[in-house]
Amino acid sequence: MAVTTVRLPSDTEQALEALSYKLDRSKGWIINKALSEYMQRQMLEESRWQETLEAMEAVARGDVVSGDVVHDWLSGWGTGDEKQVPIVAELNPESSGNTR
């Protein structure tokens, strides 16, 4: 395991010390836990950003389902007349083949 030194403001160090005592965990454990959770959130945010960019590219290509088609699909929910999920490729044969 690697060792990394971190400089903390005194108030942060005091809060870390108090939390360490309260949880009966080492300061290193708390820092590792916090850093791990932060990095997971950052990766999730990056993934969501990539999905957003892909969605924007799909819209620019015209790979979309019209609001009327979506509304018609949703209006059948909870009834005996539920419809299949609208598929872009079926509505727009010139689309790049995206499925939704």
Structural write-up:
The chain is mainly α and 100 residues long. Helices cover 62% and strands 0% of the residues. It contains four helices and no strands. The chain is elongated and about 60 Å long. 2% of the residues are buried. The mean pLDDT is 89.
Give a quick set of tags describing it.
single chain, 100 residues, elongated
Structure summarized in a few sentences:
The chain is mainly α and 100 residues long. It has helices spanning 10-23, 27-61, 67-75, 88-91.
Number of strands: 0
Succession of helices and strands: HHHH
> Regions with pLDDT < 50 over 5+ consecutive residues?
none
First-residue to last-residue Cα separation = 45 Å
Which class best fits the helix and strand makeup? mainly alpha
Instruction: Give helix % range.
Output: 55-70%
The overall pLDDT, averaged over residues, is 89
How does the SSE layout of this entry go?
Blueprint lengths: L9 H14 L3 H35 L5 H9 L12 H4 L9
